[in-house]
What does this fold into?
Amino acid sequence: MKKLKKKWGVTSNFQMIIIFIAFSITGSLTLIVKRYLFELIGITTDTSLFIIIPLYLLSIIPIYFSLLIIVGTLMGQHKFFWAFGKKSLSKFKRKK
It folds into this structure.
């Protein structure tokens, strides 16, 4: 736990608990939002996996990181989650 606190720049155990709760809530909310999004665009269990899998991958990343910033901000950890989101999303960029 000390290594993670140092790596993330977190000062208290309470802050770590808040961060872990925010991650948990965000993961659950992402699946709920994805389900409603797929229902909205008409994706069902009968839809081909060749359509579902790319749509899932393309939708889950922006949904997750958007919700992570929103939930983190509501829990008073905007600075941490903004930096975490930027660092994580930068890993998706092409390297020159």
